[in-house]
Every structure is written in structure tokens, then in C-alpha cells.
Amino acid sequence: MALILNIETSTTNCSISLAKDGNVLASSEKNEGYSHAENLASMVEDLLSKHKLDRKELDAICVGKGPGSFTGLRIGVSFAKGLSFGLGIPLISIGSLEILLEQAMAEEPKYDLYVPTIDARRMEIYCAMFDAERRPIHGVQAKVVEEGSFQEFIGESSCLIFGDNATKLRGLVKDDVRLWDVFPSARSMCALGEQFFKDKIFEDTAYFEPYYLKDFRVGAPKKLL
Fold first, then answer.
1. How far is it, in rounded angstroms, from Cα 85 to Cα 207?
2. Element (H, E) at 162
3. I need a labelling partner for 160 at 20 to 30 A (CA). Which of 54, 56, 71, 85 fits?
């Protein structure tokens, strides 16, 4: 039974929400490139003010921990840590790919396999794979995508690949794999944040850092002609 501020800044989308008892009370998003430093504080103040709430009424801060944009994550996590420390309330973190998974399972609950992705650069992505029961097929990894990517896992299963630039995989995966461009949203953090709060799964505010996941797995080099 908590009032939690959720913050998600792993992509160009700066997203916040207020959750009461695990349900969305209010939310705000701005997708203006990596301008989170300019927008985040005012977005939070505006949202609280709109609902006649004070920071001191918050029970916890929940932040998307990555992987994703180094700049976006650093800004979001630093802001969340500052609020947590200043207010003396717990800090909760949720993986940004898990946040995407929550969105997809709520909006598209009809696939055998779910592959949340966050764009990195060129043909590189951060990704994971889950079955329809949210069980991991493979964990979070950094991957260079190429023709036939994920085919060994997909086989004949129906599959949704989704994230902030999922359509860049077009032509590299089977035609019947659906590609869906969608940004991680703080609205999808509410239920998980409430559960973590109940279970007292908190971060150490002083030492918590974003999950950057820097290393990429590169495919075998192609023969030169």
C-alpha cells in the first residue's frame, strides 16, 4: 500500500509515473532526444503539483536501471538516488527490458516468445528472450544483430521483437516475426514496483549504479571475397 514515483530514462523517452498500491495514478512522458536533464525535475514537480501531492508523501522511488543509453541512465538514476537519499525513502530498481516485457504482455498477450530490445548503436542491441509465462529463454545480453538472428530460439514459434528501434531488424529475422517499435514506459513499472516494495527488495542508495552492460557479442567474421 504505497505511493511510488517511477522513473524510466533508458532511451530518448523520458517517462515518469505515480503509482498508488500498484496502480497507475498519473504519468507524463517527453520524447525530445536525450534532454532528460532539462526535463526530469520539472516533469516530477508538475505531476505532483497536478495531483496536490508533496514529495514528502512518497513512500519509495523506483527507477529503470538499464541497460540502455549511458547518458539517459546516468541522469535518471542520479535523480532517483538524490530523491531517495534526500527524502530518506527506499530506492527500487527494475530492469528496463523487464519494463518493456510488462508492456508487451499487457498489450500483446498472444505470442509464444517475447524479445524486448533497446537500441545501442549501428546494428547493436540490448536484448533478452522470454516465453509466454515470462520464463527467461536467455538472459540479458548485448548482441550484434545479423541475418538469422534469434532463429535458433524461434523455430516455428510465434514471436514478438519489440523496443525503441526494433524495426531495424527488418530483413534480418523471419518475415512472420512481428517487429514493434515501442519505448519503455514508467506506466509499466507500477505493479512490479509495488511488489518489490512489499518484498522489501531495495537498493543501497549510496552504491547503486545503472546496469550499463557494455560488452557486445559479435558474430563470426565473414570470409573476404
1. 11
2. strand 159-163
3. 71
CA 123 to chain centre: 19
Domain extent for 88? 3-96+184-198
CA geometry: angle at 164 spanning 162 and 165, to 5°?
80
Section 105-132 average pLDDT: 95
Closest to 113 measured CA to CA, from 98, 129, 102, 127: 129
Question: pLDDT of 129-173, one tens digit each?
Answer: 999 999 999 999 999 999 988 888 898 999 999 999 999 999 999
CATH number of domain containing 20: 3.30.420.40
pLDDT surpasses 90 at 222: no
Number of domains in the chain: 2
How is the beta sheet containing 3-8 ordered, strand by strand?
23-31, 13-20, 3-8, 60-64, 91-94
Q: Which of 79, 68, 10 is nearest to 38 (CA)?
A: 79
Contact present, 115 and 150 (Cβ < 8 Å): yes
Q: What is the pLDDT of residues 11-40, one digit of tens each?
A: 999 999 999 999 999 999 999 888 899 999
**Domain presence at residue 225:** no
Cβ–Cβ under 8 Å, residues 62 and 18: no
What is the distance between the alpha carbons of residues 97 and 113, in angstroms, rounded to a whole number? Answer: 14
The pairing of strands 113-121 and 91-94 is unpaired
Tell me the chain's radius of gyration from C-alpha atoms. 18
pLDDT, tens digit, 9 for 90 and up, residues 40-92: 999 999 999 999 999 999 999 999 999 999 999 999 999 999 999 999 999 99
